[in-house]
């Protein structure tokens, strides 16, 4: 039982760390330092190189907002179910 609780705590801590790191990265933006430089006249697209003023920029959709605690809760529940389903009979 103590091994189950230790595993549950480790999985929950890892899930919290991963989701908070993703939330922090999302606030900074995925563009990185290249976004601070001046825009170029030509942009590489899936169709090849095109002039920036010829591109039609659509409205960006917002990423889904999930609270890290919700994701950690789902991960914790899934790990407990997996541990319960695959535990050996002598552990019970």
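Sequence proposed for the structure above (92 residues):
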């Amino acid at each position: 039982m103590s091994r189950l609780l230790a595993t549950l705590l480790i999985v929950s801590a890892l899930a919290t760390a991963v989701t908070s790191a993703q939330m922090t990265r999302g606030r900074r933006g995925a563009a990185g330092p290249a976004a601070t430089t001046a825009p170029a006249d030509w942009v590489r697209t899936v169709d090849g190189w095109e002039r920036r003023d010829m591109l039609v920029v659509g409205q960006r959709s917002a990423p889904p907002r999930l609270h890290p605690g919700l994701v950690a809760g789902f991960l914790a529940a899934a790990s407990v179910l997996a541990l319960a389903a695959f535990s050996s009979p002598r552990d019970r």
